[in-house]
Design goal:
- The protein is α/β, with parallel strands linked by helices.
- It has one domain: FAD/NAD(P)-binding domain, CATH 3.50.50.
- The chain is built from 7 helices and 9 strands; from the N terminus they run βααββαβαααββαβββ.
- The strands form 3 sheets. The protein has a 4-stranded mixed β-sheet, with no helix packed on it. It has a 3-stranded parallel β-sheet with strand order 3-4-7, with helices on one face. Strands 5-6 form a two-stranded antiparallel sheet.
- A hairpin with a 6-residue loop joins β5 and β6.
- The two termini are 17 Å apart.
Length: 235
């Protein structure tokens, strides 16, 4: 399922996923006093970045490099980077029947999750079964205050609220988590099996739907149309 040393290719994505399907969140601790209305603002946000940064234009890639496109491939979803978020995004898109191309510049799937201890998942099945139910609001306020209010409150709110669902979803995909310091802070399975868990899930979803997983493949630049919409990438 992995292809290495391929000729330069142009991938065109017809559909984009805006956020990772399974986001694993860790709340930042802070002793600062939260701004009173910040949690309410999160619910009303239009999801635009508070910094108004157009990532596609700020990080266009090495546009000075001469690239000869040898092939063009179409897909519904193109995912660049196969760390825990990228791999899970590809897996979820495959579950939804999308044709996915997942590109990773290293030879390993899973990124830092292959070395980390584990994630936090508030109100996951593991936590609730242990009688540990978490109020997200104080965590949200602490995170925003600790970031000096320079974050998208709605995005942080979603990350915290969905973190438990992400743990449940990964559990359904073969990951066996165990409580660590608390039932909300869980440990990943043994280091030796983590990448294979991703590979097995990618086989069941991405590859089974006609998609591809390309390791050893570096994304060179984004392809942007005249309206500024990202439509693909050159790898």
């Amino acid at each position: 399922m992995n292809a290495k040393n391929i000729a330069r290719q142009h991938f065109v994505a017809g559909t984009a996923l805006g956020t990772a399907a399974a986001a694993l969140g860790v709340a930042a601790a802070s002793t600062r006093t939260p701004r009173p209305a910040i949690a309410d603002e999160a619910a009303d946000s239009d999801w635009a970045s508070v910094l108004n940064v157009d990532i596609a234009s700020v990080l266009p890639g090495n546009t000075s490099e001469q690239v000869e496109v040898a092939d063009t491939k179409d897909c519904d979803v193109l995912v660049i980077g196969a760390g825990v978020s990228g791999a899970n995004t590809a897996i979820r898109a495959g579950e939804l029947g999308k044709k996915v191309i997942l590109v990773e510049k290293t030879d390993t799937i899973g990124g830092a999750s292959n070395l980390s201890s584990g994630p936090i998942g508030y109100n996951s099945r593991i936590a609730l079964d242990a009688g540990e139910q978490t109020d997200i609001l104080p965590l949200l306020n602490d995170w925003i205050a600790g970031s000096h209010y320079r974050v998208d409150a709605a995005s942080v709110k979603q990350l915290l609220e969905k973190s438990g669902e992400a743990i449940d979803w990964m559990s359904d995909n073969g990951w066996e988590f165990t409580p660590w310091f608390s039932a909300s802070m869980v440990k990943f399975p043994d280091y030796s099996v983590r990448e294979q868990l991703f590979l097995d899930a990618l086989d069941r979803t991405v590859v089974a739907n006609g998609g591809e997983v390309l390791t050893g493949t570096c994304a060179k630049r984004l392809v942007v149309d005249d309206e500024g919409k990202v439509t693909g990438a050159v790898v």
